[in-house]
Design brief:
The protein has six helices and four strands. The protein is an alpha+beta fold and 272 residues long. It folds into two domains: 4-159; 188-271, no CATH class. It is rod-shaped, with a radius of gyration of 63 Å. It starts with a helix and ends in a 13-residue tail after the last helix.
């Protein structure tokens, strides 16, 4: 009988390699995201260093310019530095921090999308495994039902055949019994020494010696000299045809067996 749990387990196992590949990708997303964040932070840390270096260079350049113009390190130099800091450095740092935050957010968002996509693919894979397992189960149930139906049909055919054969056998038995009761019973006469005359269905005499059919000649020579006239008369009185074997024939064979004088007229007896 089809086992649903077993079929689902077998079907699910065939998807293990694909399922493992998806789970490996899902599990790797967190590590990949951390590595990407480190690269982004390192990139923007380098940009921050560049901005700081550029700010320091700008302060030095402003001081040198003021010195060449006869000014002090304060005054115009400080004003220039303050102007650069407010108008260039701060906006650049702010933009850098904004870009960094955006890149980190974008990386995390993309990782979440990738994870969601892989999880959906995994869910679809599991659904497919279950659906395919159910299809296999339904097919197995249908095959079992068709097998049961076929076996039931074969059993019914065998039953009908057996019933028909039983009916035919009963009919033939009836005919045989009726035929046996209607047919005259065949008689036989024992002449001793294994010799026997049997009436066949056609009312004719058949000659036997120890159960083997023999010719009339061999029967007469084998039984010659015996006191068998009562048996022969009973054969003839029952209407059994001995086909050319009469009292004169029997007497002639008896005489031949006593004297040894054979009469060729009895050759025909060899064919009976």
């Amino acid at each position: 009988m089809a086992n649903l749990e077993q079929i689902l387990a077998e079907t699910s196992k065939s998807y293990d390699n694909s399922r493992k590949a998806l789970n490996d990708q899902i599990n790797a997303i967190s590590g990949d995201l951390d590595a990407q964040k480190q690269r982004i932070n390192a990139q923007y840390a380098q940009q921050g260093k560049s901005l700081n270096n550029q700010r320091n260079w700008q302060a030095q350049a402003s001081s040198m310019a003021a010195s060449r113009n006869g000014g002090s390190f304060g005054g115009k130099s400080e004003i220039a530095n303050k102007k650069y800091y407010q108008q260039s450095f701060v906006p650049a740092v702010t933009q850098m921090q904004t870009n960094q935050a955006n890149d980190l957010s974008s990386a995390e968002s993309q990782a979440n999308k990738n994870k969601l996509s892989l999880e959906q693919t995994l869910a679809s894979l599991n659904d497919e495994a279950t659906r395919y397992g159910m299809q296999r189960y339904d097919a197995a149930v249908q095959a079992e039902e068709e097998k049961r139906r076929w076996e039931a049909e074969q059993a019914e055919r065998r039953r009908q055949f057996d019933a028909q054969m039983a009916q035919q056998n009963a009919y033939y038995k009836y005919l045989n019994q009726a035929s046996a009761s209607a047919s005259p019973k065949l008689k036989s006469w024992d002449f001793g020494g294994g010799y026997q005359i049997v009436q066949n269905p056609y009312g004719e005499a058949e000659y036997y010696s120890n159960g083997n059919k023999i010719s009339a000649y061999n029967f007469l020579t084998g039984t010659a000299g015996g006191n068998n006239w009562n048996k022969w008369n009973d054969v003839w009185n029952n209407g059994v045809s001995t086909r050319g074997v009469g009292s004169d024939t029997i007497s002639g064979i008896n005489n031949f067996m006593k004297t040894g004088n054979y009469d060729s007229r009895y050759n025909y007896l060899r064919n009976y």
